Amino acid sequence: MDQKQVLMLGIGNVLWADEGFGVRCIEEINRQYVFPDNILLMDGGTQGIYLVQHVQACDILVVFDAIDYGLVGGEMKLIEDEDVPNFMGAKKMSLHQTGFQEVLSTSRLLGDYPEKILLIGVQPVELEDFGGSLRPAVKAQIAPAVAIAIDYLQKLGIEAKQRTEPLPELEALSPSELALEQYEAGRPSESDACRSGDDRVLTDKEIKFDPKPSIIDQPLQVDVDHRGQY
User: Fold this and answer.
1) Phi (first) and psi of residue 100, to 5 degrees
2) Is the residue at 50 inside a domain?
């Protein structure tokens, strides 16, 4: 009997605060557990449609993501199987959610669709904080989310082996510069790196906005009725 192929996928953008929840979950699973060869752990980031081949190749799909359920910030909700595409696109918080909804639709259209899907989502607290990290209420849900995923796989007869020692953060799936503790510790102060645009650009008299004049003197005309029929 062939082994079921499992994809454990974290999606989102770690640069936008709670948007990084899914990626941080998959990093933590990688730090804590060792899996057999039929299980693939993936930091899907914001790749969107480029993930379709990986979704097509799996029988069981476990997705971690920040989802706007309309709940209290930090609250977790689980969605399974046919309901997952609806929640991935109901309230789009970013382009990657639209992209992943298309991944699922494309996989189904091409005839290779997972037998089972589990979406482990958490309601974000803050998204509009470029360079920020997970808020405490969301960060606290990483360990429960990991435990839910491990339990889900065990009920399907798929065992994960816990590491005797967690992997160092610098051996994470993501680049070492984005490892959670290093990322949080290395963030510049707000005075050095503004969180939502930099007013200094607008008020500094030495910075000039000098748009170039148009090189077209006359308006461009296009004859769309080239055969003169209308």
Assistant:
1) -75, -30
2) yes
The pLDDT of residue 92? 55
pLDDT tens-digit profile of 17-45?
A: 899 999 999 999 999 999 999 999 998 88
**Regions of the chain where pLDDT drops below 50:** 96, 230
**Closest to 52 measured CA to CA, from 88, 106, 10, 116:** 106
Q: Report the side by side order of strands in the sheet with 39-45.
A: 39-45, 6-11, 60-66, 116-122, 76-80
Distance CA 5, CA 114 (A): 9
Of the candidates 43, 41, 51, 42, the one whose C-alpha atom is nearest the C-alpha of residue 99 is 51
What does the alpha-carbon distance between residue 61 and residue 5 come to, in Å, rounded to a whole number? Answer: 9
Helix and strand totals (H; E) in the chain: 8, 7
pLDDT score recorded for residue 132: 80
Residue span of the structural domain in which 114 resides: 6-174
Give the CATH number, domain containing residue 162.
3.40.50.1450
Residue-level pLDDT at 161? 92
Residue 199 bridge partners (DSSP): none
In a domain, residue 121? The reply is yes
Would you say residue 58 lies in a domain? yes
Burial class, 106, CB count within 10 angstroms (exposed 0-12 / middle 13-18 / buried 19+): middle
End-to-end CA gap in the chain: 67
The predicted model scores a pTM of 0.77
Domain total in the chain: 1
The pLDDT of residue 45 is: 84
Q: Is residue 208 part of a domain?
A: no
